[in-house]
C-alpha cells in the first residue's frame, strides 16, 4: 500500500537493531493509516529465532502493545526469542 515508503528509521542501536515503521514519521498519513497506527496488536511469538537479518514486530515493554513498528536485527538476539513476533528475513 506504500504506507511505509516515506517513513524513517527512528532507532539504530549498533550491533543490535534498526527500528522503523512509525507511520507518523512519513508523508502519507491518512485517517485510515492513523486508525491502523493506533490499534494495538496481540503478541504472536513465532518459532523463528531472533538472529541477524530477522524482521520482527516492535512493541513497548508492555505485552500486546505492537502497532506498526518493526525492527531488523543486525546482530543475534536470542533473548527476544518467544517474546517478539518474528515474521521475515532480510536477504539483500
What would your notes on this structure say?
The protein has one helix spanning 31-38, and strands spanning 11-13, 17-20, 54-57, 70-73, 86-89. The protein is mostly beta strands and 92 residues long. A five-stranded antiparallel beta sheet has the order 1-2-4-3-5, with no helix packed on it. 20% of the residues are buried. The mean pLDDT is 88.
Summarize the structure.
Helices cover 9% and strands 21% of the residues. The chain is mainly beta and 92 residues long.
Order of helices and strands: EEHEEE
Distance between the termini: 22 Å
* Number of E-state strands: 5
Spatial sequence of strands, sheet with the most strands:
1-2-4-3-5
Overall mean confidence score, pLDDT = 88
| Structural class label | mainly beta
Largest sheet: 5 strands, antiparallel
Q: Round the Cα radius of gyration to an integer and report it.
A: 13 Å
| Low-confidence region ranges | none
Shape: globular
Strand proportion? 15-25%
Task: Describe this protein with a few key phrases.
single chain, mainly beta, 92 residues, 9% helix
Question: Topology of this protein?
Answer:
Blueprint: E1 11-13, E2 17-20, H1 31-38, E3 54-57, E4 70-73, E5 86-89
Antiparallel strand pairs: 1-2, 2-4, 3-4, 3-5
Amino acid at each position: 500500500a506504500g504506507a511505509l515508503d516515506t517513513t524513517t528509521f527512528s532507532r539504530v542501536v549498533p550491533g543490535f537493531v534498526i527500528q522503523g515503521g512509525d507511520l507518523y514519521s512519513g508523508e502519507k498519513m491518512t485517517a485510515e493509516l492513523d486508525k491502523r497506527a493506533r490499534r494495538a496488536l496481540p503478541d504472536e511469538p513465532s518459532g523463528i529465532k531472533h538472529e541477524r537479518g530477522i524482521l520482527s514486530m516492535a512493541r513497548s515493554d508492555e505485552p500486546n502493545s505492537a502497532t506498526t513498528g518493526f525492527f531488523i536485527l543486525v546482530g543475534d538476539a536470542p533473548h527476544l526469542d518467544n517474546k517478539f513476533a518474528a515474521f521475515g528475513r532480510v536477504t539483500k
